[in-house]
Amino acid sequence: MSVMSGLMFSVRTSCSWPCNRVFRLSSLLLPALSDNQSSKMSSDSHWLPPADRDQQVMDLRATGWVEVDDRDAIFKELHFKTFNQAFGFMSRVALQAEKMNHHPEWFNVYNKVQITLTTHDCGGLSKRDIKMAKFIDKIALSM
User: Fold this and answer.
1) For 32-59, what is each residue's pLDDT tens digit?
2) Which of 76, 82, 83, 89 has the least C-beta neighbours within 10 A?
3) pLDDT in tens, 82-105
4) Predicted structure pTM score
5) Cα separation, 117 vs 104, whole angstroms
6) Phi and psi at residue 47, in whole multiples of 5°?
7) pLDDT tens for residues 63-78?
8) How many Cβ atoms from other residues are within 10 Å of residue 132's Cβ?
9) What values do phi and psi take at 107, rounded to 5?
């Protein structure tokens, strides 16, 4: 990955994600996490037990989230009035994602934003995904 004038880009190699090593500019700009923050993040990234998972996903289904068929993830598609509104929403989510060190998989075309949440560290849904989904719902309602 190269950094030029505040822009970041990466060059993909022949291996598939996540074997690419991506240099994070945030590691230079953000302070290191304390042991307390690090252990909290670690506990939040553990795979959800089936009973907890079922209840949490059921709650999220009521707000439009659906389970992804071929993996342990949740998905939601949001529509906004304009591209600017969609981009503003994505910017707010991006700031929270950096704070949580938990980044969504997403796709945007004009006023449509598609979001998939899963925790790659544990290979499925975690408390961090649930927390991020609730934050996304809160922000979407305020737009």
Assistant:
1) 444 444 444 455 667 778 888 889 999 9
2) 82
3) 999 999 999 999 999 999 999 999
4) 0.68
5) 5
6) -55, 140
7) 999 999 999 999 999 9
8) 22
9) -140, 135
C-alpha to C-alpha distance for 104 and 90, rounded to whole angstroms: 10
Angle at 55 between CA 65 and CA 51, to 5 degrees: 130
The SS3 call for residue 95 is: helix
- Which run of H or of E encompasses 139? helix 127-142
Q: Dig out the tokens for 118 from the structure.
A: 């899963």
DSSP H/E element including 126: none
Helix (H) or strand (E) holding 121: none
Question: Residue 33 has which token pair?
Answer: 């996490």
Cβ atoms of 125 and 47 closer than 8 Å: yes
CA–CA dist 19, 44 (Å, integer): 23
Q: Which tokens in the block code for residue 87?
A: 């981009």
ω before 31 within 30° of 0 (cis)? no
Q: Are 55 and 94 in contact (CB under 8 A)?
A: no
